[in-house]
Amino acid sequence: MKPTVVEEIRAFNRFYTGIIGLLDQYLLKSEFTLPEARVLYEIYHHDAILAGEIIATLNMDKGYLSRMLDTFDQKRLISRNRSARDGRSVHISLTAKGKKEFEKLNQASRDQMKNMLALLPEEDGDKLLLHMAAIKQILSKTQKLI
Amino acid sequence: MKPTVVEEIRAFNRFYTGIIGLLDQYLLKSEFTLPEARVLYEIYHHDAILAGEIIATLNMDKGYLSRMLDTFDQKRLISRNRSARDGRSVHISLTAKGKKEFEKLNQASRDQMKNMLALLPEEDGDKLLLHMAAIKQILSKTQKLI
DNA sequence: CTTTTTTAGTTGACTTTGTCAACTAATTGC
DNA sequence: GCAATTAGTTGACAAAGTCAACTAAAAAAG
Fold first, then answer.
1. How far off is chain B from A87, nearest CA to CA, in Å?
2. Using alpha carbons only, how large is chain A's radius of gyration in Å?
3. d(Cα B125, Cα B117) in Å, to the nearest integer?
4. Is strand C within 7 Å of residue A24 (CB)?
5. What is the pTM of this model?
6. Is the CB atom of residue A64 positioned under 7 angstroms from any atom of strand D?
């Protein structure tokens, strides 16, 4: 692989780290921290998800998650249920309150992105989409192998 | 802007957050933490950079940076010099030792990327490059406006 | 079976990362 | 020359992440 390719991809990573940082920064004036938001996202989209699945998906420390779930529990955002099939595992679901709060957060994030995209000509959005899809497709092949 | 565009871009952000996380994770078994590496990068590429420039570029708290520079100083990785033109500002440079250590870190990061790309067919690297350049170009327009 | 080993999650102790506000010293604007 | 601003430092603290020891359950080995 040509050195330029390596360098350019690293440059893109730095650039995109900045973009994501900006987006996160403004979003997370909310009542949730960034990792909290990511965990809520996973639970919302996979009802009765196992703690271990969140850990694997988000590459997260299990102790850290366990404590985060405690605080969600205290706030009545989630319910935890021992698996009937495997008494070591815990299924996690959002309560009605948890769903509502996540949806609020999610909408704020969506609005933010919409505002950002509104600064661009319409066709740029579509272009972004295509380029991102292509990158995602290529990198998916490597992801498990890094 | 179509809702799909918004959702897809957010999906890409989640995906790419994961990629960057993986890369960082394996790289930073080094002696530097991630923000330290980013700061060293800036100093390496902009000799005699001002603290304020690093703060602006990396969107970083000045207190946090100030302390980080202290530890670099203790390790003799950088030198700090008051600006002659503005006695409040400090110019930061890498010492020979600092350059050497950064280069080591940089090479490790480069190697990691090379290994990752080696998993892909040659043409995928070039494709990635093009898509990334396009995204960078489009998003650069918005960056200051988020 | 029942003993060992592995696995899922919890808990404790700690480090790193990041934030905020008060402060010092220098500079700029009036 | 004085008030307001600015660059960076310091103190105090909160958020994020790591690591290892531990508990309880399940799976594997005998």
1. 30
2. 18
3. 7
4. no
5. 0.85
6. yes
